[in-house]
Amino acid sequence: MQIRIITDTVADIPPAVARELAITVVPLLLRFGEQTFRDGVDMGADEFYAKLCASPEPPLTSVPTPAAFLQAFDAATADGSTALAITLSAKLSGTYNSALQGRALCARPDAVEVMDSGWAAIGEGFIVMEAARAAAAGASLEEAREAARAAAGRVDFLAAFDTLEYLRKGGRIGAAAGLVGSLLKINPLIGLREGVVHPMGVTRSRAKALEALAAFARRFSRIDELAVGHAACPGDAEALVESLCALFPRERILRTRLTPVMGTHTGPGLIIVAVRGER
Fold it and tell me: Cα(156)–Cα(279) distance, rounded to whole angstroms?
């Protein structure tokens, strides 16, 4: 019996990778005024960041509806397959609860399992991809879930922000609230701990921030996967990739571009390095 893997757009999995691993991606939603867009589907990143910077108010974001998950679950299980849905941290979003509601409505709820990854961005994506690889290798639903859980314990990321104002406005700032409003020009460093945003330090320049991200990756004794993601700062992302080439093969460094829903809460200028491996 085949296992289908389902996730949300915050996992930041490049479309080509999602297709290769047969991962179904359910989009979150964002609204500019009266217009609603599906994350990563209806609006390109360049158009989104142009609108974000020009708008006096950031767009509103919302989770996928239970009906969207219902549709994905019914499609995944219609041929007798089972499905594992892995969502972003339930402490950051209601996406996990929406997936549970969709599961309760679907034709074969016993064939669907919903898992809170405890992560977001490509950290979540690494977990989803490991589950998909296990499924492709013939794993059972339980084995795919255990592969995802094992990956969740070996994932970490560090992000450098130009500003925390977008995170503050979106209510996702968590324990990093104390960094907002500094009179000094800083580049805050942010991570996730137990599913919530956590401050990881500050740097006094963009160059120092990129150095801190590279140093974070170097603290791993073994790296199985490495990714660099960005929100409208491709030059900084390529500079970071260049600094990581001595650590990990350039061609295997996954490049991601944060989807509009993520960009709504981070603003332009965010850059992230994510690792799956051993410290």
Answer: 10
The answer to whether residue 43 sits within a structural domain is: no
Query: Could you list the residue range(s) of the whole structural domain that residue 114 is in?
Result: 3-28+63-152
Please report, for the domain that includes residue 203, its CATH number.
3.30.1180.10
| Model confidence band, residue 165 (pLDDT cutoffs 50, 70, 90) | low
Q: What is the Cα 24 distance to its own chain's centre?
A: 15
Tell me what percent of the residues of the chain surpass a pLDDT of 90. Answer: 74
Residue where a domain terminates, one of 152, 168, 195: 152
Q: How many domains would you assign to the chain? A: 2
Sheet holding 29-32: strands in order across?
Answer: 35-38, 29-32, 60-62
Among positive and negative, which fits the CA dihedral 137, 149, 224, 174?
positive
In DSSP terms, 156 is beta-bridged to 275
CA distance 168 to 146: 34
Within a 13 Å sphere around the CA of 126, how many CA atoms are in the beta-carbon half?
30
What are the residue ranges of helices labelled H in the chain?
Answer: 15-20, 45-54, 66-77, 95-105, 121-136, 141-152, 165-169, 206-218, 234-244, 260-266
